[in-house]
Amino acid sequence: MSDTKSIHTLNARGHVMLEVTRDYFKVSPAAMFREIQRLRQEAETVLASKRIRYSDLKTALVPDRQRREMALVFDRDAISNNWYGLAVFQKLIPLFDRNSNHSVLAVDYIGDNKLQDVLYDAMAESVMLTRDVDYSYSSQFFIVYINNLTDVMMQRFHEGLLDWNAYVGLSDTTYVSRFKILLSTMLASVFLKHRSIIIQGHEDDRSNAEDVNTCGYPFEEHGYTCRSLPEHLTGTLLSYKIERPVYKGFAVDTEFSLNAISPDPQPLEEFEIDIDEAKLAYLKSEKIGSLEKAGLGCSDNLII
């Protein structure tokens, strides 16, 4: 394949299809590079059949230094409906800007007994509470994560939820924190909002001519149009990956991210970034926000 096209994101962190394919069929890096490009072309073609341009989804899939991210926290114990996700999104959907693009993820804040203190501390450090909370166990909280936000958008969500008792508060997750890192290991993509279109995944054996609202939330009631693609495409190419440091044990995602841009990927740990001292001083004085967002606010993390 001579025409290599850019890819907004590739998710092998929470989606195992690429790893299973590579390991089972003993696929070489060069062949996997071609397969990733083929998947990208397939996604572009299916999206185009639904009058959506892949290029227009970049702002919902790629972090933007000029935009914010947030985690909204809800207390399940304060929601009478057993389908608490529905209750939450009934409140959230009207608060979205009709012309904006976002990835929306959600999760129950789960963890076993030995992690409860860590989960509590991380949440206490980062969440701006709107009311007193009787914290019994981490899984009583349902968290919705939204990217590509302006300050005005964040304020609109916050103010629009203040009168609802189930709304606990929000965390500005634009920059790295323990809470954000923990969420990155839990959150699952719910939908991608592209202006007035909601994009979700559907079963791989369902026809691409169909469009289904797989999560069942009331988008259509608020004037949105639902479009869906096979899950193997949405799971790998249309799922936002929350920024976090590279940790040992999560090498597969890094490997595939490098393989997505090169048929001959090299181990990331073998690379060094050589930064001139004057350039480093400029970055620390003029671009400190970008460094903090990348988790590089301390010069100890940089090789000079």
From TrEMBL:
Protein name, UniProt field: Uncharacterized protein
Superkingdom assignment: Bacteria
The organism's taxonomic lineage, starting at the top: Bacteria, Pseudomonadati, Pseudomonadota, Alphaproteobacteria, Hyphomicrobiales
Originating species: Agrobacterium larrymoorei
